[in-house]
Amino acid sequence: MKIWRIGIGIMALTWVVLGGTAWAGDQISIKFSHVVAKDTPKGKAADKFAELAASYTKDRVKVEVYPNSQLFKDKEELEAVQMGTVQMLAPSLAKFGPLGVKEFEVFDLPFLFDNYEQLHKITYGPIGQALLAKLSSKGILGLTYWDNGFKQMSANKPLKNVEDFKGLKLRIQSSKVLDAQMRALGGNPQVMAFSEVYQALQTGVVDGTENPASNFYTQKMHEVQKHMTLSDHGYLGYAVIVNKAFWEGLPPEVRTQLDRALADATVYANQIAKQENDGAIEAVRQSGKTQVVLLTNEQRAAWKKALVKVHQEMANRIGAELIQSIHMATGFDPSKP
User: Which family does the entry's similarity section mention (predicted)?
Assistant: First the structure.
């Protein structure tokens, strides 16, 4: 199996390097794979990038978008972009931990950001750019960040107090931080591919999960979850990444045009993220299938008090200096839940 993968990787790299010198006038094809639905913020942003790339390059570049895990599931897609099987992804930030860049798991820390202003100070500032640069050693270029939004908890019972989580099996992405978060609440975290979550909730393999409302609604989780708590306890965002050899092999003028397309698609992505999530919350309410639960100030403070210890617990894994630098930049005070 290893020999086969190495062989495919060499062929992909050879194609990229040779292609970089042979693309005088040929159309360039970019496969962009992602695991969510087309009508989510990420799905719409990927389609917008494809549209703008075609426009700005005058159809010299064709971006083929494959949503809903059509090509690869969560655990497979990063290897696929490293091998050149696909050229672009927008994986959630938690996925870079298993790749060996554990610093990205800082974005999984609960209650790290109170709003988008604080968040963007990090993602589009020096800290966020330094994190993207760490991907280069993995054969990947980090280009930018896309928002999805703040996460809500869901289960078949109302989650209002910390005690309500006790014993629940809760689906998470593969992230040590998210594992610690659910354990701090008294739950039992279960790592699972996003494409498998609906069936797992339907059959009771897991009791609940966390998602931005747009993912919750477009994946029809409101059909199999009776309660969704508007907790805004964590953030889900994406890094748009490309195969490094492929991107650097593109003609410079094409890269310039694609950079422009991506910059405009990023503005679009972040503008629609909050709008889509707000709309999804209302759609969940209107469905009548899931009760939307609101936390009191006291309940939210109790959640935060239970979860703030995760910041300290994860300092050795993520980096105490990184966590402290974000605390300073956003004004986060661990002593004041």
Answer: Belongs to the bacterial solute-binding protein 7 family.
Residues of the chain with CATH 3.40.190.170: 2-145+237-278, 152-234+280-330
Convert the pLDDT of each residue in 99-147 to its tens digit.
889 999 999 999 999 999 999 999 999 999 999 999 999 999 999 999 9
pLDDT tens-digit map of 159-180? 999 999 999 999 998 889 999 9
Residue 252 has pLDDT above 60, yes or no: yes
Strand partners, 172: 191
